[in-house]
């Protein structure tokens, strides 16, 4: 089975809703992209809401679509250039608040993707939260979306 048909089969077996709910955590507006036909890396973005009264933390991410998946952020280095870096401690999702993973900021990074992300495909992703536990979502690939940021996926 090709990568794409595997993705489609996985997508067909699950809800296509873009919002996923687990306890107090709601994942909203998730999308993924990779850059070009020869992309080795991709990224996913989303808004994570916490309706509970205690902070939670996105600690790690897993997916089968790439050799590695990491939580990343951007920082401006001494030369004024934005660089990506791994954030091993993850991201706090404040009680009653939200944390956005967005272009140019925090994101889920796929490194060593097995195939470029195709428009409309679904990327399976497991999010590991300190309190909410594991949340499995299907992230739709949207290569056309423009909401700022810069071509940070040229890494590798
Ligand atoms: Cu990154």
TrEMBL record:
It comes from Ruegeria marina. Keywords: Signal. It comes from the Bacteria. Pfam families: PCuAC (PF04314). Residues 1-22 form the signal peptide. Coiled coil: none annotated. This is Copper(I)-binding protein. The keyword Secreted does not apply. InterPro entries: LpqE-like, Lxx211020-like, PCuAC_sf.
């Amino acid at each position: 089975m090709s990568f794409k048909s595997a993705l489609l089969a996985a997508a067909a077996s699950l809800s296509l809703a873009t919002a996923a709910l687990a306890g107090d955590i709601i994942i909203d507006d998730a999308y993924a992209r990779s850059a070009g036909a020869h992309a080795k890396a991709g990224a996913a973005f989303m808004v994570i809401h916490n309706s509970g009264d205690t902070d939670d933390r996105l600690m790690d991410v897993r997916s089968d679509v790439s050799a590695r998946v990491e939580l990343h952020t951007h920082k401006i280095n001494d030369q004024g250039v934005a660089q990506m870096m791994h954030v091993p401690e993850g991201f706090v999702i404040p009680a009653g608040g939200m944390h956005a993973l967005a272009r140019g900021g925090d994101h889920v990074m796929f490194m060593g993707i097995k195939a470029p992300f195709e428009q409309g495909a679904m990327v399976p992703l497991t999010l590991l939260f300190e309190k909410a536990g594991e949340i499995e979502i299907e992230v739709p690939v949207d290569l056309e979306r423009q909401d700022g940021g810069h071509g940070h996926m040229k890494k590798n």
